[in-house]
Specification:
There is one protein chain. This protein is an alpha+beta fold. The chain has one domain: SET domain (Beta-clip-like, Beta Complex), CATH 2.170.270. It contains three helices and ten strands; from the N terminus they run ββββαββββββαα. It starts with 5 loop residues before the first strand and ends in a 21-residue tail after the last helix.
Length: 140
């Protein structure tokens, strides 16, 4: 669960990104594991290809746990970048450097997700462009 103020914005390529709505200090915790909002799913629970595709887009896979972690808030829209602004340490995530208001929050999926480590980045994140028609989704 995101514990800093963020907002979703449509990027130039048409995808959705998570952007800081406040300045975030280096090493400040930005995501807290919250089991009321975030959920773990065993890989065996994913019973069809459509569900697997959803988890590949929005989840984080752990080989150690044999399960997918699915963020229940806007954290699921944090995009991939090799120049990531957010790093994971255990169940929580922290700012890898100072993040200024308006700057995008990004993960390096090649480090953050065991599924991507094994299978690579084989999919583009085709987030729906019409997501912003509902203003309730634009703020965290």
């Amino acid at each position: 669960m995101l514990i800093v103020k963020t907002e979703l914005k449509q990027k130039k390529d048409g995808t959705i990104g998570v952007f800081a709505a406040q300045n975030i200090s280096f090493d400040q915790r930005v995501i807290k594991a919250e089991h009321v909002i975030d959920r773990w799913f065993y890989h065996q629970q994913i019973i069809n290809d459509n569900l697997l595709e959803f988890f590949q887009r929005y989840g984080v896979y752990s080989d150690e746990k044999g399960s997918w972690h699915l963020y229940g808030d806007n954290a699921r829209f944090i995009a991939h970048s090799v120049h990531n602004t957010v790093v994971q340490n255990g169940l929580h995530c922290y700012a890898a450097a100072k993040i200024n208001k308006g700057e995008e929050l990004t993960f390096n999926y090649l480090i953050h997700c065991d599924w991507v480590k094994t299978h690579g980045l084989k999919f583009r994140m085709p987030h729906r462009k019409d997501y912003f028609r509902n203003p309730a989704y634009a703020q965290h």
